[in-house]
Amino acid sequence: MDTIAERELTYRDDAGEEHVFSIKVQKPRSDSGYWACGYEIGAPADFAATAYGEDALQALVMALHAVQAHLNAPDLRGRVRWLGEPMASIIALPSV
Asked: What single string gives the DSSP state of each residue in 24-55?
């Protein structure tokens, strides 16, 4: 895995305890005529997947959108923070 971006976040559980976890985004790579960009989200989500696009930039943007969607899932919504700020400001992406 060729990680090009990583960010540490905090998650507040039901008891109010904070846990540090990370998200990682891989370098986009050519894959059978398309581009692929892998990403990982540590616990509590503990998820890894690949986003695809027509070119490297689209694959990267799709991966970032997917990370944002996972971190906004009902079980994580309102519990994930970066630099003390709520999840909504973790990844600000333009509409594509």
From this structure: EEEPPEEETTEEEEEEEE-TTT-EEEEEEESS
